[in-house]
Design a protein that fits this description.
Length: 221
């Protein structure tokens, strides 16, 4: 039995691993929303649940709950599909490692570095895959698009650079602004930037879409 999600080209992937897009988005964003809420209302949460006070201040309470929410999201994905999505799994492992270091050492630098590590890793994997002639972006888009080889290569290259850009931005924000500002940017800034970048790639996607070319060929007959 496959524990990890299937390769995007596997015909069994769509049949066995399909998840409602809204639910998938909730599973991916849910832990971040928990992190934001817990950091903003950390003192209130400690008053309601005194045991959380053992973790430390608001950022440490948020880190602990972030780890728990990430574990729940991964378990939910497993229960729904009997597989674990590659990228959330990698991100989750980094959350657990750096979250544990944050709580054990009572130093929030580790959880702040998590997005830098994850985005650098993703960017490096995508660009490294291209070096070996592999376009690995299918795991990111979950086969949302059907592109020709050149299209996947170009899109993979752009996303690889974008992930490295996000890593640099995270370093700039956490090193120069307050913890609250960093948390707010992490939750409410990264997503709009990512959506903007995604939409900016639509001309390339349309230009190299196999489905669009098929439609044009059928229309010409």
């Amino acid at each position: 039995m496959n524990i990890l999600e299937r390769d995007p080209s596997d015909p069994q992937k769509q049949k066995k691993e399909g998840v409602n897009p809204a639910l998938k988005l909730l599973l991916e964003l849910g832990p971040l929303l928990v992190f934001f809420f817990a950091n903003a209302r950390g003192e209130w949460l400690v008053q309601k649940f005194p045991a959380l006070g053992e973790l430390g201040g608001p950022i440490f309470v948020a880190t602990g709950l972030f780890m728990g929410a990430t574990a729940i999201a991964l378990m939910a994905s497993w229960l729904l599909t009997r597989t674990l999505p590659i990228m959330p799994l990698v991100s989750g492992v980094v959350v657990f490692v750096f979250g544990a270091l944050t709580l054990y050492l009572q130093d929030d630098i580790f959880i702040k570095m998590k997005p830098t590590i994850v985005n650098t890793l993703f960017g490096g994997v995508l660009l490294g895959g291209l070096f070996f002639g592999k376009s690995l972006l299918g795991y990111v888009f979950d086969s949302a698009f059907s592109l020709n080889t050149e299209g996947w290569r170009k899109l993979t290259f752009r996303w690889g650079l974008f992930f490295l850009f996000l890593a640099i931005v995270n370093e700039v924000v956490w090193r120069n602004f307050s913890t609250d500002a960093w948390v707010t940017f992490k939750v409410w800034g990264i997503m709009p930037i990512t959506l903007l970048f995604t939409f900016s790639q639509m001309p390339l996607i349309m230009r190299h879409s196999l489905e669009e070319k098929a439609k044009e060929e059928n229309a010409g007959k």
